[in-house]
Amino acid sequence: FCNPGLLELSLGKFRNVLLNQTNPVEAVIRNIASNVTVVIFQVHAQQSDVVISFDKNPSVNSSGTGVDKGLVSILQPQQSVCTWYLRSLDASQVLSTAISIPYMEKDPIPGGCNLEFDLEVDPNIYLDYTLVDIHIKFAPANLGYTRGANPPSCDSGTGQNSRWRLRYDVYQYFLPENDLSEMVLMSHIRKMSEVQSIKANGIKMLTLTTDDKTNVYFSSLPGQGVIYNVIVWDPLWNTSAAYIPVHTYACSFADLVDNCSSLSKLSTKVFFTALAVLGLFTCFFGHRFWKTDLFFMGFIFAGFFFFVFITRVTGLGYDVRLILTAVAGIIGGLFLVASWWRLGSVLLCMFIIGLVLGFLFSSTVFFTPLGDYRVFRDDVVFWVTFSSVALMIPVLFVGCPRILNIVASGIVGSYAVILAIACYVYTSLAYITLDLLRRVLNDYFSRAYTNVPFQTNDFIILSVWIMLALSGVTVQLRRERSEVPFPPHPYLTWKRERERRSTNVLDPSHHIPPLRERIHNKLLHIKDFFQKEQPAGERTPLLL
């Protein structure tokens, strides 16, 4: 940590500094080499805004405010010293980290052709987030130039001698899962500040040309720390420079409810915990308890489509929608059971079950990097491909419905357990179905890149999912191999049994009175129980 009021920096070296509101810290770098033409100074804090400026009294055009901010110092001939000023907006002390990075005359200048933001040269990345997506945008870069020269014109032409030849590589970096500490952020943001370190540690998501808009969308991962940065590359000189890295957790640390430490609502935990109990039972006993299996699959099928419908057409709160979804799911499950009891159509029931498994399988396919291919930005292409993959499952298993039911109950039932785990511990596996739901509910989610982290926690939970699915499928296959594929049609069985009792006089059940007569006799018995006892003596009239 630096001395109070003064921060001595060396080029390319990070320094941690405690900032406060009342006493600005003066950051100074000395002995800058003559071949350095630009110095980018940046400061990062976790959740509290800091102010970085060229002057002690910051102005709009000479300062920046935020958790990840930087300034570009264009060096003059003979200049060897640069000075900046730092302070926080909070009354309490704020932990931050600062670094200054040098660039030469052939290196492009990040934000050198800024026409949108306040700073004349703005190397910052501006980030906004919602519960659905994250939006980053930045100012175009300019070509590098020597000290004392005039900067190249940003609009002089579009040839190879202008800034239009520049390329922008957008990188993403995930912080460790379930870790919201300041020191972890400070140590990892260093890996995303310099060009070589960004290339070594970040994930390259896409490349933009000067013809593209300098803004990108990503899927939001509430509670998961993510760092973004952009490298601008000059293909003529093969030189590069990095913008200011920006981070987000897609949640608020200050909110008392639904903050970064407690994202899942109580209603969500109750809903998915109950679903996980039913799913775990279905995973191991779904085919044996056929009607329970039908109820589980019908619940998922009806609940999903009802939640989509009620979200798009109403403005009800989340808890109300979840309760109504649970009710709709129960009705859907009971309807599927009733349909089986009345119609006895195995093919109809297996089509619904196969469709549920197909949706999960198709969602898993698009959860992989395949889902970020540019061709699937088109909604028509995406939904046609998604539906084709989903329908492939019931079509492939049309000749072996028992195998389909056992596999579906094992995989879908075990995934319900994973969704319940995601309510208590972060795991990227929940986004297999959540990203599908986001795409259904939000018209513009197709533009978002849906890359997610896959770290130790995810490998453990993935192993649990695979173990549960394989165990459930294996147990059911071994138990059911000598049994009939499906139970007999219950309605036809009941009709045959009724006809048998009505025609077979030797069957003791033949002599059982009809249901209406039995109910009438039972009511008479109850009536006699409440009647007063008759007085003692003669109870019948004398016979003449």
Mean pLDDT: 87
Number of strands: 18
Q: If helices are DSSP runs of H or I spanning 4 or more residues, what is the number of helices?
A: 12
CATH class of the largest domain: Mainly Beta
- Major sheet: 5 strands, mixed
Report the CATH architecture of the largest domain: Sandwich
Remind me, CATH topology of the largest domain?
Answer: Immunoglobulin-like
Q: What proportion of the residues form beta strands (DSSP E)?
A: 15-25%
Query: Which stretches of 5+ consecutive residues score pLDDT under 50?
Result: none
Spatial arrangement of strands, main beta sheet: 1-3-8-5-6
The secondary-structure class comes to: alpha+beta
Shape summary: elongated
Descriptive notes:
This protein folds into two domains: 6-147 and 164-248, Immunoglobulin-like (Sandwich), CATH 2.60.40.10; 266-480, no CATH class. 39% of the residues lie in helices and 19% in strands. It has helices at 182-189, 195-201, 266-285, 290-313, 318-343, 346-367, 379-396, 401-422, 431-441, 456-480, 490-503, 515-530, and strands spanning 6-9, 15-19, 25-29, 38-45, 50-53, 63-66, 68-74, 82-88, 94-103, 125-129, 133-138, 167-174, 203-209, 215-219, 226-234, 239-242, 246-248, 448-449. Strand 10 and strand 11 (133-138) form a beta hairpin.
